[in-house]
Amino acid sequence: MVLVLGLVAALASVAFPLAPVQQPEVVYAWSAGDGPAAIPLMPYQPVELAVDTSCSAVRGAGDGAVLSTVPLTPGPAAEPLQGLRLTGTGPVPGSEPARPPTGPAAGGGLRVSSAGVELGEVALPAGECALSVVSDPTRTAVLVDGEPALTRGGDVRPDVAGAFSDLPEGVALRLTADTRFQTTISPVKAALAVVAVLALLGMLVAVRAADRAVTPRVRLLPRRWWLPRPTDLVVTAVLGVWWVVGAITVDDGYIAGIVRGRGDNGFVGNVYRWLNAPEAPFSWFYDLYHGWSLISPSTAWMRLPSVLLGLLCWALLSRLVLPRLGRFAARRWVPWAAALGLLSWWVPLNVGLRPEPWVAVGALGVFLAVERAVATRKLLALAVGLVVAGATTAVTPGGLMAFVPFLVAAVPVLRVLRARVADLRPWPLLVVLVAAPASAVLLMVSDQSLAGMLEATRVRTVIGGGLEWYEEYERYSTLLEPASFQGSIGRRAAVLVTLLAAVGVLGALRRRGTGIAAGPAGRLAAGFLVMLAVMALSPTKWTQHFGDVAGYGTAVLVLGAAAWSARLVRPRVTALAGGLAAATAVCSLVLAGYNLWPFAGDWFTPTFSTLPPQVADVPLATIAAVAGGLLVAVLLARSAWRRSAPAGRDRPDPDAVGRWAPGPVPLVVLVLVGVLALQVGSFARIAAGHRDSYTLASDALATVRGEPCGLQRVLSVETDPAAGLLPTEDGAVPAPRTLPVDVGGALVPGTTVAGRMTSAWFTLDPQQRDGRLPVVVTTSGTTRPGDGLSLEFRTGDAVERRGVAIDDAEPRDHRELAPPGADAVRLVVDAPTAGPRTPAVVSLPRVPRLTPMTDLLPAGVPAVLDWPVAFLFPCVRPAALPDGTAELPQWRVGPPAADPAAGITYSPGFGGPFAAPRLLVTEQRMATYLAGAPLRDAVQVYRWTPIEQLSTPRPTVTERTVSGWHRDGHARVPGLDPVG
């Protein structure tokens, strides 16, 4: 029975990617009479394209455009795409040549270019004729009256953003969008999944029956495991507080966009880059998050699963892992050490939408399954462990480390298998070992075809962006990078202290009397180190990935505490000094870190978090290094002095000096507690002190009150900068020289930053006098050293000057709060004009006239939500990518002006899904103002205005069934994939 069910499960799983899928066939039709049209394809090229026109239409175009699939006048700031361009080469209509042409040229010609390649010119015959241009992955051809006149082999399909022509009629376009990724599961594929799951479950039941026949029953959970303990309450309380007040991770916005786009797009695609290629084979947890988001996309609700996973990880550790590690687990301090260890890992790394919490729980579950199999010789435990390892691998590439417990326990696992050969025979045993992990395939390509998954992988490889395995040192270099959230104090504490603990565990395994079970503890510590090595296979080297080993790391921390404090280790001065030296070095590196967090997590950061912890302006890292070094030196010196005494009855014991010295464990515990308190306490303080502005805590409370719109709730937008220009006193001329200044798509009066100039005094608005709103000027251009620009505030007879830095050629707002009592402001320019240059410009001072963002973008309005900010706007509907196209919304919500990270979404070289829509619009920047923090550039709102009135053709959509290996050429990445 095991053999039959296992074979069925394995074969069904293997066949699953090859099974047919349902794919929409989306056809767009357009004619010149419809006017310019928006058809921003995603991916950029169609599966096939056909243009129908006539010789008379081409002649009527003169030298104009018969057809272009990219705008004739694209958005000025957009990156170009290479479309199809059909251009007439005949005489301008209405002009008479000096001598009538004869021969084929008498009919004029048609010049054709596609995908940036000049395909040539076709001479038109005299008289009327039918012209067609067809393009597919194998060829592009021009047909005259159905006969090929120009043919180019290979893939030169054009990029398509729309359809544009200088002709009012006589041109028709028909194209089929590329929907290779927008597939859904077919009945055949669903049936295979049902068969595979039922067969797998049946196989596990049969294995359980075989186990019960030859192995004794062993209790799985300890007695009274369900009773709450004090440490349970502490862990729950701290994780609960952090859930409400703690920082988001750097990728929460990225994942929120992917998850929320799942419904409109029809699949889990990367909506910010990679041609919106599916995240398969690592995407099943996104589907879970999508279902979760349908209840509420609010920040608190979306962060809750990671907190629940943290509690599950704690339950596994406290109830199952610790008892397996040895007798020492019965000591009273062990659960508290485990609680501190878990919180030290989970708080800085694992609360958010990223996959690390899933991997941490999955890897720990596999460890328990392997240990149960080793202890009880139950094959079911191994099979379940393989299923969990496969599912964990299907979460993220880092999930591959879930197979590490099998690797480090290879010898005892092989002993279990050899012992079971007699009752199960080799073939059923082998089938179980294959069918169990193969079940992960059902999660990897649940609604994708094999060809679609392989094409997505190819696209990601072509675009790249990762590092090679031998560049893994970059992760640790980033961990030790100063003044970076990647090397924050919390991440350093978790990783570096656990590495120290792992060394202590491996060094103590050969000693007796420690109470540590050498087998499980050795496999755990070795597994932790091997997992760090496996992490090198990940193409990205962010320190966030350390969260994958949070479960293992917690257990290793507890083992390390037991190893370093073991009775047979501490009295030895050399061991004690070595441990103290190592702990001093590690703790000093930890204390040199900053309490920094990404994006909204660093808002309102207390002063003490903008630099490493200090005491009386002396870095705590320095104090720890000096104090620890002195203690180690004293220990070694006194021990050496005692060893130098003459041999005899009264010779002092050199190791006795270690009895009064503290071991490394108290120092490490003190640092971990302090770091944890710093992280949680700083955010609790921020939440309590800034309830009138945006924090995750205020967001959670607002959601409970029925205001679920996140950051949008406390943002206002400056829609018209000119409306807030400040008046001059007594109607004076504002400045000796004024000119229009671009403030982000709108023009307001300003002046050049050249020469010496002092403007008139501008009267402050009442809201500026009481500090509710700042004085704002907008600058653009570049300056030279020595150029100066200042704002001067007048308070009675006193004048206070504040410098304004100009460091960006793009328009940049500068905000200053007026000093208390100030009533007027003026501009002062001191910039010598020697040497040729284009001077920078500055707008005249203004007060922002604001509109609540919830009024400007009501709930449900679509907008492109850039990935750094997408998590914080749950009421804005992310612009969709349906039916092989990208939506053309009216709005874009972007990160602060100084953050260029969102540019990938609009860059063809990164496969940006909204590169084509960006070509079709001009972008007007609108500054936002955050309640309670008017100086902060929280986000930018952009109005997208089409460059001309555009129609939107409605597609014809039909469903078709395609095989798992079906593909229509490659989805080409402009500039990276070869053309032709």
Provide a descriptive summary of the structure in words.
- Keywords: Cell membrane, Cell wall biogenesis/degradation, Glycosyltransferase, Membrane, Signal, Transferase, Transmembrane, Transmembrane helix.
- It is found in: Cell membrane.
- Its main location: membrane.
- Residues 37-180 form the Arabinosyltransferas concanavalin like domain.
- With 980 residues, the protein is of the alpha+beta class.
- It has 4 domains: 21-92 and 107-176, Jelly Rolls (Sandwich); 186-219 and 228-620, no CATH class; 723-848, EmbC, C-terminal domain, subdomain 2 (Jelly Rolls), CATH 2.60.120; 852-949, D-Maltodextrin-Binding Protein, domain 2 (3-Layer(aba) Sandwich).
- Helix content is 38%, strand content 17%.
- The chain is built from 27 helices and 33 strands.
- The strands form 7 sheets. Strands 1, 3, 8, 9, 10, 12, 13 and 33 form an 8-stranded antiparallel sheet that branches.
- Strand 17 (739-742) and strand 18 (747-752) form a beta hairpin.
Count of spatially separate domains: 4
- The number of helices is 27
Radius of gyration: 34 Å
- If you average the pLDDT, what whole number results? 89
Roughly how much helix do the residues carry, as a percent range?
25-40%
Distance between the termini: 54 Å
Based on secondary structure, the structural category is alpha+beta
Tally of strands: 33
Determine the strand fraction and express it as a percent band: 15-25%
Overall body shape? flat
Residue stretches low in confidence (pLDDT < 50, at least 5 long) are 92-105
Question: Biggest β-sheet, characterized?
Answer: 8 strands, antiparallel
